[in-house]
Structure formats: structure tokens, C-alpha cells
Amino acid sequence: xxxxxxxxxxxxxxxxxxxxxxxxxxxxxxxxxxxxxxxxxxxxxxxxxxxxxxxxxxxxxxxxxxxxxxxxxxxxxxxxxxxxxxxxxxxxxxxxxxxxxxxxxxxxxxxxxxxxxxxxxxxxxxxxxxxxxxxxxxxxxxxxxxxxxxxxxxxxxxxxxxxxxxxxxxxxxxxxxxxxxxxxxxxxxxxxxxxxxxxxxxxxxxxxxxxxxxxxxxxxxxxxxxxxxxxxxxxxxxxxxxxxxxxxxxxxxxxxxxxxxxxxxxxxxxxxxxxxxxxxxxxxxxxxxxxxxxxx
Length: 296
Hints:
The chain is of the alpha+beta class. Helix content is 53%, strand content 23%. The chain has two domains: 2-121, no CATH class; 173-295, Immunoglobulins (Immunoglobulin-like).
């Protein structure tokens, strides 16, 4: 009887050991299976992340290749391109992406791809309209060119006539002379005795020139090519700029020859330097003559 009890106990222990072994084996199988599945998931997530990065890089390159001559559309393209770059940076910096993150990234990539396709359609449509407008513009230009050619000879003749009239209307200063004057009002060429420089000339007779009051300007350059000038803001218009003058004389010109004299007053100024002085005369925006004098 005792022997039977011992045998029953041993049998129960054996059954428990076997049962535990089976449970352990099942748990090990489940563990390795789950681990394998987890590794597969991680691998798939990594591949999906790489795929998203590649797709975002392609979209970014696509945006960079889109160009259009439209400020509003260009600004929208830049904003969309910046969104792509930001999402690409976020994906690249994500070490281990979850299903939720990958799902969000995938939705955003899909949206950005659709937006880019929409921009491509808009740009294509805009380019087609621009091509049509360009063709119409070219036709208009051709018509204008034909009309312009017809008027070109007439315009050229008119310009030549205007130029001839302008040249004919330009005054000339004749018999220009520059001398030094001492304090007694007599001519003198010694630097230490000269108090004034006197420039005389005759405005030529010109029936085509504009009549009325005119300003005659003189510019006097000393031997060192420095301009003699009273004040910095003494200027007049010459060609496309304003230049300084040494002295000015207002005269009333009526088309006939008109003798004039203009003075540079050197009183209470440092003595003039020795050497050659060059004088230019101007009126109506034209250089009408020049002369020089030697001061000893």
C-alpha cells in the first residue's frame, strides 16, 4: 500500500514537471516569435522611414525645379517647399518612429505631393496662357515695327532738321579776350598787381537764336587747373549736370551782335598765381568759346 502511494506521488511530480516544461517551451516559443515579429516591425518601420525620406527629397527637388514669373505663386511655392524641408528634417531626426508617427508622416507626404501636383497644373496653365499672350504680343510688335519703319525716315528727317535748327540757333562768342586789370583800371599782366580779370567778347549776330535775357557764364581755370569760384553753390546747367562758374553777366540779346564784358574780382583775395589761365564761356547750356591769358 505504501509502495502504491509512492508511485502515485512520483507520477504526479512527473506530470507537473512535464506540464511546466510544456508551459516553458510555449512561453519561449511565444517570446522568440514576438521578438522576431518586433524585429520585423522595426525593420519595416525603418524601411518606411527611409522611403519617406527619399520621397520628401524627391518632392523637395521637384519644388526647387518649379519656376514661374508670378510673385504670388512664387511665394506660395517657397512656403510649400519650406514645409517639405521642415518635415524632412523632422523625419531624419526621428530615431525610432512609431506607427502613429509613420502614419502622420505618410499623410503629410501625400498632402504635400498633391499640393505640388496642383502647383504643376497651375504653372502649366499659366505658361500656356503666357505663351498665347506672347504670341499675340509678337504679332502686335510686328505690326508696330511695320508702322515704325514707315515713320522712321520721316522721324529721322525731323530730327536732322531739329538738330540743324538747334545748331543754327547756337550763339557764338567772337573776338574773345582776357586781360588783367590793376587797381587803376588799366591792363596789367603782373600777378601781384592784378585786382580783376576782364573777359570781353562779342555775341554773334543770329536771327534764329532765342531772343531776350540771357546769362553768360565764365569759368576760369588757374595754372593748376583749379576753378576760380566765389561760392560753392554758384552753378549752372550744362548738358546733363550742374557745374560751377566763376562769374556771370545777364544781357538782353535781340539777335544782333552784342559786345559784352565780364569781370572776375580778385580784390581781398590771395594774389593770383603766375602762369596760364584758361577761360570758357557758356550760355543756353552751350560752350560758346574760350580763350587764355598768361600772368607773369
